[in-house]
Amino acid sequence: MKRLILALLLAAAPALAVTPDEVLDDPALEARAREISKELRCLVCRNENIDESNAELASDLRVLVRERLVEGDTDEQVVDYVVGRYGEYVLLKPTTTGANLILWITGPALLLIAGWVGFGYVRGRRKAPDASATGLNAEEEARLKDLLEE
User: Fold this and answer.
1) So where are the chain's domains?
2) Residue 45: its pLDDT value, please?
3) What's this model's pTM, rounded to 2 decimal places?
């Protein structure tokens, strides 16, 4: 019996952040709220969603999500409202549009540019004449002879 209770507590551990007073009476709305909460970042805990976070701000965000759902907003409208209020940083999976598109493309683009520059440098070094094989010209030999005689 103790093992069963322990297993149930461990299985419910991620949901312990949601307090009983936050839970909606309608199971369908509560399920939608939980799904939306899993997509939103706790601004205090950083890489933890608001459904799992015990921070006060995460609790406020969970309540806000549930209020918007009770008012009749769709899931997208709720997420858009929260993003409009807190910025795109609140999304655990950022969008790939607008300014974020630049961030998504810049890394691979710089890697390709660096590879191209490195390839060009190595190729240019292979084609460069070997300075040690050419020897000294007459002026350099005369200067070296003068230096050695001093």
Assistant:
1) 2-90, 99-149
2) 83
3) 0.58
